[in-house]
Fold this protein.
Amino acid sequence: MKRYVIIVAGGKGLRMGADLPKQFIPLAGKPVLMRTLENFATCGMPADIVLVLPRDHQEYWRRLCGEYGFRVPHRIADGGETRFHSVRNGLLLVDDDDAVVAVHDGVRPFVKHDVIRRCFAMAAAGRAVVPVTGVVDSVRRMGPDGRSAAVPRGEYRLVQTPQVFPARMLKEAYACGYSEDFTDDASVVEAAGIDVELAEGNRENIKITTPFDLIVAEALCRRRVWE
């Protein structure tokens, strides 16, 4: 069964406080986004990689690829107004409806290879799959009046990517139209009436969004935690 990976990299890096979008910030000597693509290229599950970038970032990305001698094969799709529209644009380059499709955040370079393989295998069996981790901290729910209440953290999970689906399932879900309630691909698929299954993720699979995340990422990169 053919596999695709849609890597979404449309962030502007505002929370990072940098002029450079967060996906292009160097991590241990190489842009974050390159490390993410390399992770999928070396996981032992060959896949066609589709990189979704805003149109005004694409020429800069091509220059970076030349400067770093980056050779991981991939195609580029235009980023959209929202993440939903970006993923939908990426799906236009998925030309096999019998394939499986993983959608992954461009600034998550540390998903473990066994997580990728497990999610692909579950999706190949016709399931919609989302990797998650447990909640370590105590959790409180805020009410509309500003008051808070403790909630049992065992009932909650932190959602990661890659989220993996049969291609036909994902395309049909994205054809249903956009809602502001969509937070990820799983929420799009659920809105189409499809149950989502959970797979065990890895805690190192952080989304690099803030300067603190980058400090943590440098340490994780040195330890090669994705292997």
About this structure: The first helix runs from residue 32 to 41. Helices lie at 32-41, 55-68, 83-91, 113-124, 167-174, 185-191, 211-223. Confidence is low (pLDDT under 50) at residues 13-17. The first strand starts at residue 3 and ends at 8.
